[in-house]
Amino acid sequence: MAEDTPRGTGLPTSAPLSLGAANVGNLYRAMTDAQAEALLQTAWDCGMRYFDTAPHYGLGLSERRLGRFLAGRPRGDYTVSTKVGRLLRPTPQRAGTLDTAHDFVVPADHERVWDFSAAGVRRSLEGSLQRLGLDRVDVVYLHDPEEDDLTSALAAGVPAVVELREQGLVDAVGVGSKSTAALLAAARNGAMDLLMVAGRYTLAEQPALAELLPLCRADGIGVVVASVFNTGLLAGPRPTARGRYDYSAVPPATLARVRKIAAACAELDVELPQAALAYPLREPSVRTVVVGAATPEQVRQNADRMARPVPEELWHRLQERGLIP
User: Fold this and answer.
1) Mean pLDDT over residues 122-127, rounded?
2) φ, ψ for residue 143 (rounded to 5)?
3) Residue 279 confidence (pLDDT)
4) C-alpha–C-alpha distance, residues 118 and 236, integer Å
5) How many Å from the N-terminal Cα to the C-terminal Cα in the chain?
6) Which of the residues 28, 50, 57, 78 is marked catalytic?
7) What's the rounded Cα separation, in Å, for the pair 17 and 46?
8) Taking Cα atoms as reference points, which of 143, 131, 138 lies closest to residue 226?
9) 14, 21, 225, 261: which has the fewest C-beta neighbours closer than 10 Å?
């Protein structure tokens, strides 16, 4: 980290389990406002106080629903992160179609436009604040910069979010991505407070362990782990070929390894999803695990799993069998 680079305070409020709010933006299937409210209320009742959202999630629907839920609650009682890099531009001519090409069941009345410029980042945050009904968010992440042009996105986007932090508009800044290369490039920049590591540090695979996490430990960068179930593969006790892995079919070698992990879990009466939730928290730089949910019952189930201790013996067995590093 450059000595003259101001740093924020990291994640202002955290607990082992936090809520990713993509589902309340109608990810994969539609839910009513009442159903979204019930899901968010269940997360709150289970002690979750960090909520992650983005303009991308349902073309702003996730932010609007989350904002309505948080309205009236003491601002110091929760933490909100959102993302920048995708501006929402109105497309009224498409309002009669759905945004299913991006997996959200919402009217396609806006389109996403990549923009990591200083002006674009500020416009994105202003739009998010309006939808959330807040005057500030705690954390802002550059969202998937590798899907545009990584070098130019970081060159423009990192100074833009740092300026937001320096002006006191956010407490912490970072990058959220499923690309280890993008996250590593961001960490080496020296200005990041947090990195949201999506699917790259899970019980199924740990590419972030080679360089990224050691760098985060050395530089004091906090890590928020997302996609801990690898989009479904680790979400049930018995992984099958019908499951999903990183939004696609499960590679046979990955499925075979995860089945061995599940068998080792069963030997100690541990559910595979329970182990998947606990595993990232063994890393000192990890601040919280962000998990999405489609129903209140899934929220409660994940909270119950996180609350159950995992015996240290499980990690020893998995290491001895060459199933985790």
Assistant:
1) 98
2) -100, 115
3) 98
4) 42
5) 28
6) 57
7) 9
8) 143
9) 14
